[in-house]
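Shapes recur. One chain:

:::
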Amino acid sequence: MWVILYLIAVIAWLLVAQTVVLLAFKQPLQWTYGANSQQPKSLKLVLKFILQATLIGSIFFFPYLVGSSPGAYYGPMLPWEKAQYFLYGEALAIFLMWVTFGVMVRVGWLYYKPRYTPNKALTKSLLSTLSSFTVVAVEEPFFRGIIMGMFLAGGMDPVAAIGLSAALFSVAHFLKKVPNYWPFIGLAVLGVWLGAGFYKTGNLWFPMGLHSGGILSIGVHRCFLNYRGPVFWTGSQTFPIAGGVGIIIMLIGTAVTWIAVR
């Protein structure tokens, strides 16, 4: 369970580093991590850099704590002969997100209306494509490779390891200030699906693909779909998977992954 202390240490470092930066920029201190719209752009860039550098650094530093190296630790989780699992996960996530949005459009909870100019929509879609690879390259090694991996290595029951790592995955998304916390459940369910994929395949490729396909689908849909249905069922532009429809489909995906993947 000491791996949880490692996660806490990473969070503590982020908050300490942010405090130093806020003092340097003569900005009010805060207990959540991340910039707000009132802060200068230069400050926002510094905080983003600190976040990414910390996450990447923690991924590379951790293996040395357990007497290994990054290549030796992550290599067995990313076997090249199973790289196709990334494509399987990506395709599955895109398909199920299409089903999710399709259901909500069909019942009238979402409607099609471009939210940006064509050039801006294209730019945002391309950025979503880029982030669909960069985000999963950090979050999956950290939450599945380190957190869940160490739970399993310590002898924790697989179901408990999946559930606990999923909860920590969800909590981590709320280090920044948010208007509400109800998306916690949807993100936790997503974490369960990703954890189940990691456990059943024995590699990071499949959960990375699932995660990547979801980010890509959500990023593109924001450019064209608008919400008018009950939030309980639809979720939001930022977290469409946190609505009832998304949660049900993710639970189905989790069950299929658990049963079908060998």
The mean pLDDT is 92. Residues 78-260 form one domain. Strands lie at 110-112, 225-227. The first helix runs from residue 2 to 24.
